[in-house]
Amino acid sequence: MSNFVSKGKEEIGKLLPPTIFFFVTLHLIALMRSLMLKGTGIPVVSSVVVTVGALTLGKAVLIVDAFAFVNRYPDKPLAYNIAWKTAIYFFAATFIHYLENLYDFWKETGSLIAGNHKLLIEIVWPHFLATEMLLVAILFSYCTIREIIRVIGRVVA
Question: Which of 1, 35, 78, 105 could form a disulfide with 115 if both were Cys (CB 3.0 to 4.6 A apart)?
């Protein structure tokens, strides 16, 4: 049982830093968006949706980090690892985001192919592209901070 508990603590310890980072940044973006949309009648994203997004991004980072090819450039300048990891995390997060949206349309239509078709027709492309641009900026910031910490070392109090 203690092995199970120690493994659980280890996994939670790995999940917390990226999840907290994404939780804070996504809530800041949601706040800015709600301030910009105030008075327009356009619905804003709830805190629950933002929290689920942060958990999804945190888990995507953990899943991608489990693959050996992620740490491809450990001895090269930081820019290599930052760009490489940002791209990988971006594609993983975009894929997971797509699957989440596809699931809703799949339930609605009853067919995976019909759900995918309806998703591609009904998606609001400017909103999707704006979300993807913010996602790249957030992931780039995360990878930069993380790589600097990796090279310099963790601050131990």
Answer: 105
